[in-house]
Here is the input.
Amino acid sequence: MKRIHVNLLFIAFLFSLICCKTNTLSNTNTTQIDGHPAWIMQSNIYEVNVRQYTPEGTLNAFAKHLDRLKAMGVETIWFMPINPISKVDRKGSLGSYYAVSDYTSINPEFGTMEDFKKVVQEIHDKGMKVIIDWVPNHTGADHRWLTEQPDFFHQRPIWKGCSGI
Here is the structure.
């Protein structure tokens, strides 16, 4: 079980380095409060559901709203899950953002990894921060890790209302 936590943390760390690499933000405050960055204690956080934010449902379409959000006082953009959604055992036609089929990719409905990097850079250029809703224990039934690393998962028989993973 330790191996899955270490690997997932490492992947999350790498993902954050790749996607959020930027120069130091002008408003970054290194002050700590009880071990937490001070900015988080009073930051105005705005949650974004990319699929539903614009009619296009893409990162590029969302990026056109950044100036308005900044003017509203938004300091941090919090993206709901942006990873591809599992197709196996999908609930409904759209599926759940929390049934992830690949933690290292961007949902192609939203755009590409380059689109994501671009919007993150635009957010940072406006002095805002980015957080991503990332839930490692919500692996979708068709995620490759289930077959590549089966010992990382505790699986149980499927029963109504449960994906079994």
In short: Residues 17-27 have pLDDT under 50 and may be disordered. DSSP finds seven helices and five strands in the chain. Residues 2-20 form the longest helix (19 residues).
